[in-house]
Amino acid sequence: MQAQSLFRSVGRLVAALAVSGSALAQASPFRLVLATEEYPPYNMSGPNGTVTGISTDIVRALLDTAGYEYEITVYPWARAIALARTQVNTCVYSMSRTPEREALYKWVGPLVSNDWALFARSGASRPQTLDEAMMMRIGSYQGDAIVAFLQTRGHLVDVAPSDDVNPRKLLAGRIDFWATGRLIGQYRLKQQGIEGVEPVLNFNHTEMYLACQIQLPDAQVLKLNQTLHGLEKSGAIKRIYAGYGYTP
C-alpha cells in the first residue's frame, strides 16, 4: 500500500510539473532574431551600438506591439540574407520582394517603398530609359536585388562588396552610372560630402519587407501582418517617417 501511495504521489508530481512547464512555455513570448544591413535612411547603425532608421523603427513598433522578444544585428547584406535563409526564427529587412525571392522566405509587409534610380556625374548624359544605358558600366553591390534585375536585362554590372564605395567609383570614372535606391543614394552623397553626383533616371519601384526563414509558422506571419496593418491604420507609420523628415 505504501508503495502504491508513493507511486501515486510521484505520478501527481510529474503531472503537476508537466502542466506547470506547459504553462510557462505558453507564457514565454515568441522570439525572433533579426538581421539587417547599413541601408540608410531605412536601416543603419546609430549611437552606442543601437540600430535605427525608418524600417528599423517600424519593425520595432511592430514587434513591440505584437509582444515579441527580438534582437537586431547589422551584417554585410550577403550574410544577412544567408542567415534568414538558413536559421530558424530569423528574419531580414529591408528586403525587396522579387519573383526570384518569393518562394525563399515568408513575407511581412510591405514596410517601406523604394524607388531604384541611376545616379550619374553632373553634366553626364541623362538616359530617358534604362535601355539607353545598355553597355554602360553600372555600379551596384553584392546581394542587392538591383544586380539581378539589371543582369537579366543584359546590363553590365560592376558588383562591389558594399554600396558605400560606389559614389566615389562614379566620381573617379570607374563606373558610368550608380544604381541604388533614390533615397539611400541621396543620403549617402550627403553623408560622404560628395557633390557633382545626381539621380538621372528612376527605373523601378519596389516595396521592401521583413523576410523570414521559410519555417516560421504561418500563424506568426499572419499575426505580424495583421499587427502591421493596425499600425498603418493608427497613423504610427506616418509618424515614424515624419521623424526622419520624410513622408511614406
Task: Give me some keywords for this one.
about 250 residues, alpha/beta, D-Maltodextrin-Binding Protein, domain 2, 2 domains, two-stranded antiparallel sheet, 8 helices, about 40% helix
What would you say this structure looks like, in words?
With 248 residues, this protein is α/β, with parallel strands linked by helices. 40% of the residues lie in helices and 29% in strands. The chain folds into two domains: 26-113 and 207-243, D-Maltodextrin-Binding Protein, domain 2; 114-206, D-Maltodextrin-Binding Protein, domain 2 (3-Layer(aba) Sandwich), CATH 3.40.190.10. It has eight helices and ten strands. Strands 4-1-5-10-6-9-7-8 form an eight-stranded mixed beta sheet, with helices on both faces. Helix 2 packs across helix 7 (218-234) and helix 2 (54-66) runs antiparallel to helix 8.
Question: Helical percent range?
Answer: 25-40%
Main sheet makeup: 8 strands, mixed
Strand content: 25-35%
CATH homologous superfamily descriptor of the largest domain: Periplasmic binding protein-like II
In CATH, the topology of the largest domain is named D-Maltodextrin-Binding Protein, domain 2
> Distance N terminus to C terminus?
74 Å
Uncertain segments are 13-25
